[in-house]
Amino acid sequence: MCPLCLxxxxxxxxxxxxxxxxxxxxxxxxxxxxxxRPNPQPGRSxxxxx
Length: 50
Hints:
Layout: H1 3-31
């Protein structure tokens, strides 16, 4: 392959990889951390009245 083709291909691949990494970073930052409470809150009963 000619040097111009290799340069174009390299730039295209690096652009795709960079965009994928940037979008993954943005998704994790925008989503935030959702923490699940492992234990129920004290004082509340788990049973429902029928």
